[in-house]
Amino acid sequence: MGYRVAIVGATGNVGREMLVILDELKFPVDKLHALASRKSKGLDIEFGDHVVKCEDIEDFDFSTVDLVLMSAGGTVSKAWSEKIGRAGAVVIDNSSAWRMDPDVPLIVPEVNPDAIMGFAKKNIIANPNCSTAQLVVALKPLHDAAKIKRVVVSTYQSVSGAGKAAMDELWTQTKNVFVLGPTDPKTFTKQIAFNVIPHIDDFMEDGYTKEEWKMTAEVKKILDPKIRLTATCVRVPVFVGHSESVNVEFERELDEDEARDILRESPGVVVVDKREDGGYITPKESQGEFAVYVSRIRTDPTVENGLAFWCVSDNLRKGAALNAVQIAQLLDQRGLLVREDA
What's the distance, CA 68 to chain centroid? Predict the structure, then answer.
């Protein structure tokens, strides 16, 4: 017997990807509910070979489901997740609303699966930021081998991380560049077509943005509070797929060959690292894939015990929807997800 599952935000990029991945991974779904705001009520939503009608979140009885995958933004999650948890369902939330709550585990299954046991305090589990998720999958095995002291990361984040409107803006601006049409920004602060923008989320008093702060705080919570991390997050004119340039300083020596071997054996990681033209992965190749790809592993000679590498993943999958479904699988595997009517 499967579970009764609801997707909140089912009409969005990540919500639709969650539906696809639930089907691809054959997660045991007995009954699927697609939920969104009232304006989406009645829309046809595809789930595998079936079509379900989108329902209004305001009218839904959450006591009738076992699991809720939440991908409707922080405001919606703050308003609903605790109420859903009290109704008995487990919430896996994709927003930033609960990530730093001490009573809510922040989970990447390949990295800190045992932390999931803390979910029962609120019946909420947080999904990390898209750029954090892929980074910690690559960092975890290296940290286990040589203990990370410091990380410097620059991200190259696709527009899909900012939603459908952002993807539409890149598409429209790109077309308009060729026909001399308007390229005025609406979603972004500057033109994104044929440009890069070193600004994701709001600026903070120290000059970092909230996106950069999230990476620092989340890596500490998921992996190790002693790790020092500094990030520069950049939006680039790519539709899907986040990339990261990563420099790591370790406590102990870890040469590039050993690191390459360790990563090849690590869950969720695929190493493509040939020192030749095209011997690396770009965002284009990561689209639609589950893995975190690591390329260009090399010694960083500017610090003692340093390595540098390139990291790429589909942000709508491992950075969001896939990680959420993997958390659901982890709950199922450990017997932590139980039908209330069982």
Answer: 17
Instruction: Flag whether 152 is in a domain.
Output: yes
Greatest CA span in the chain, whole angstroms?
62
Decide: 296 and 309 in contact? Cβ < 8 Å: yes
Helices (H), the chain: 13-24, 74-86, 130-146, 164-179, 210-222, 256-264, 283-286, 322-333
At 276, list the tokens. 């030749």
Q: Which two tokens stand for residue 216?
A: 């620092």
- How confident is the model over 5-16, as pLDDT tens digits? 999 999 999 999
Residues 195 and 260 occupy one common structural domain: yes
Whether 65 contacts 6, CB under 8 Å: yes
Same domain, 180 and 298: yes
Quick check: is 339 in a domain?
A: no
Q: Is 75 in the same domain as 139?
A: no
| Nearest alpha-carbon partner for 88 in 71, 58, 64 | 64
- Distance in angstroms (rounded) separating the CA atoms of residues 303 and 221: 25
Beta strand 148-157 with 50-56: parallel, antiparallel or unpaired? unpaired
Which residues make beta-bridge pairs with 292? 269
Rounded CA gap, 158 and 173, in Å? Answer: 15
- Taking the C-alpha atoms of residue 148 and residue 249, their distance in angstroms, rounded to an integer, is 6
CATH number at residue 17: 3.40.50.720
Torsion angle of alpha carbons 109, 114, 118, 120, nearest 10°? 70
Q: Express each pLDDT in 188-237 by its tens digit.
A: 999 999 999 999 999 999 999 999 999 999 999 999 999 999 999 999 99
Neighbours of 78 (CB within 10 A): 13
Residues in Cβ contact with 270 at an 8 Å cutoff, skipping those fewer than 6 apart: 281, 291, 292, 293, 294
Residues 161, 88 share a domain: no
Known catalytic residues? 130, 242
Q: What is the Cα–Cα distance from 17 to 164, expressed in whole angstroms?
A: 13
SS3 119: helix
Q: Which of 82, 136, 91 is nearest to 110 (CA)?
A: 136
* Cα–Cα distance, 324 to 320 (Å, whole number): 6
pTM, two decimals, is 0.95
- Residue 123 structure tokens: 């019946």
